[in-house]
Amino acid sequence: MGDSTSITRDAIYLLFSGDAELWAIIGVSFQVSTTAILISIPPAIAIAFLLAYTDFPGRRLTISVFNTLLAVPAVVIGLTFYLLLSRQGPLGDWRLLFTQSAMVMGQIALSFPILVAMGHAAFQAVDKRAWETARTLGASPSFAFYTVMREARFGLLAAMFAGYGRIIAEVGASMMLGGNILHYTRNIPTAIALETSKGEFSQGIALGLVLIILALVLNMSLQYFQGKGQVSS
Amino acid sequence: MNNTDRFCRHNDLTVLRSALSIFVLAISLLYLRTGFSDSALTVDDNRILRLATTTSTDNSGLLSYMLPVFEQKTGYRVHVIAVGTGKALRMGRDGDADVLLVHAPGAEIEFVKAGHGVKRHAVMYNDFVLVGPSSETAGHSIGSDIHEALQQIAAQKLTFISRGDNSGTHKKELGLWNAVDISPEGRWYREVGQGMGKVLQIASELDAYTLTDRGTWLAYQDKSPLVIINQDDARLYNPYHIIAVNPSHVDNINNAGAQALIDWITSESGQSLIGSYTINDHLLFKPSAGPRQLSQSGDP
User: Fold this and answer.
1) Residues of B with Cβ-Cβ distance to A98 under 8 angstroms
2) Which long-range CB contacts under 8 A does B198-204 form with residues at least 24 apart?
3) A116: domain CATH number?
4) Measured distance CA(A192)–CA(A170) in Å, rounded
5) Is residue A66 very low, low, confident or very high in pLDDT (cuts 50, 70, 90)?
6) pLDDT at residue B300 is higher than 50
């Protein structure tokens, strides 16, 4: 199977030699996951805010539902959307199975509960008086919302990074919904699965390195922001 | 203190904002460069052809060798979805693929008979080989006749790795067990439910026997300590057929594209490309679309 040093060396060479196929795969990953997270963030944050700052019937149930969804495996999300989007399924007319849109849908479903659950926790950590004070001082609801968002920004950022981290590294739903089509729906995790099954370990390691570097960058920037937060409070 | 506080807060908001704008800029550049492919899809829907095929054809590299020629010639974009034959047939039935390139004659005939597919066209064939540990490693040797070999494996409970995924190779393997009246079960018989490449890796690691198509084997043999136990046997024949999904059974099938691919792959230029594809100087598939071979195409 080749020794691991030479595999790693080949991997690093592949990554930095500008191998077009490799970078196309990386492009698909970022395009799909970024679209998904950008679509999820606004409604998820709004829901998290409502859960923390308002009271409505079914609020506790909603929280439980989102916490449960956190634990749903990606393949189950993949299978659910597969059945929905298949031509024989209820949404078959949309003709979206094996497209990037299908992958985006799956990844929205995966990141949404994380954003809501962690966003909710972040909003909860903010003193409720921040909202009340802002309102009493004559701030409009939207400005008061902005104030609270600003107070909760590190937690919200952590939620976004966690959500992004889950979907960019996720293989089950992407494989089922995208179909691993070269140059179109083959992203980093599905490519790693494929290359590993073909015994092309260097390709797999090269793509794995991209994910590790990404995780490192996300975590370091989060820590950077959080570090500042501690100083200022 | 208050001043520092305000300063810091202001400062990291600025950092946050600039980080965000760099991010947004990067993403918009990404979209500008690649275009959002799905919108292209809706505009040019009938230029996309969904080919569901087996992992064995895709992993062998044959498709990425020949399909660009077809795409160049006709303007179709072929989306290759590599799955087991069982899943491919299911996708055809559900209308999730336009055309299928598969290798499980029995299941194919049923598929067409049930009206899910239009017609089977012979494309090419190769053969299966039984691979396993060499007699030095294993300390015993296995019969050179495929039926005898399987009987010995079962009798001595030698580890055998089965695809177990309802693929063409899996169906073939079950057919062979059936032919020697053995229903394989027990700790020695392991169904792993994975693609051919993965199965060869598992078999290599466990010094086990497995049935593989020759194409995948040729691509892997350098990485594997296993050797061929049985080959060149009429009972190990492995024909591939291309089938257009029946457009009158499911809506929105790209039948024109499917027909174009069938016409091209069975034409002289498609067939000669198949006949010229080699890995390590080994011919992987032999073209078989012609009146001469058609008589063979119905074999089990």
Assistant:
1) 50, 79, 81, 96
2) B198/A196, B198/A197, B199/B161, B199/B162, B199/B163, B200/A199, B200/B131, B200/B224, B200/B226, B201/A197, B201/A199, B202/B161, B203/B131, B203/B132, B203/B161
3) 1.10.3720.10
4) 11
5) very high
6) no
The whole domain housing A46 covers 22-196
Q: Is A233 helix (H, G, I), strand (E, B) or coil?
A: coil
| Residue pairs spanning A and B at CB distance below 8 A | 86
Quickly state the pLDDT bin for B43 (edges 50, 70, 90). Answer: very low
Give the residue with greater pLDDT, B166 vs B212. B212
CB A2 to CB B223 under 8 A? yes
- Measured between beta carbons, which residues in chain A are less than 8 angstroms from residue B55? 197
The stretch B217-240 carries a mean pLDDT of: 90
List CB contacts (< 8 A) between A88 and chain B: 94-95, 250
Number of structural domains (chain A) is 1
User: What pairing do the DSSP bridges indicate for beta strands B227-230 and B189-191?
Assistant: unpaired
Among the partner-chain residues A87, A199, A232, the one whose CB lies closest to the CB of B96 is A87
Cα(B37)–Cα(B141) distance, integer angstroms: 55
| Alpha carbon of B245: minimum distance to chain A alpha carbons (Å) | 13
Mean local confidence (pLDDT), A129-139: 89
The structure's pTM equals: 0.77
- Residue of B37, B41, B42, B205 to mutate, testing the A interface (most A Cβ within 10 Å of its Cβ): B37
SS (H, E, C) chain B: CHHHHHHHHHHHHHHHHHHHHHHHHHHHHHHHHHCCHHHHHHHCHHHEEEEEEEHHHHHCCHHHHHHHHHHHHHCCEEEEEEECHHHHHHHHHHCCCCEEEECCHHHHHHHHHCCCEEEEEEEEEEEEEEEECCHHHHCCCCCCCHHHHHHHHHHCCCCEEECCCCCHHHHHHHHHHHHCCCCCCCCCEEECCCCHHHHHHHHHHHCCEEEEEHHHHHHHHHHCCCEEEECCCHHHEEEEEEEEECCCCCCCCCHHHHHHHHHHHCCHHHHHHHCCCEECCEECCEECCCHHHHHHHHCC
Which of B4, B10, B16, B83 is best to mutate for the A interface (most A CBs within 10 A)? B16
Return the CATH architecture of domain B41-126+239-298: 3-Layer(aba) Sandwich (3.40)
Partner residue facing A87 (CB), from B8, B79, B94: B94
CB atoms under 10 Å from CB of B191, counted, come to: 15
CATH dotted code for B127-236:
3.40.190.10
- For chain B, the domains span 41-126+239-298, 127-236
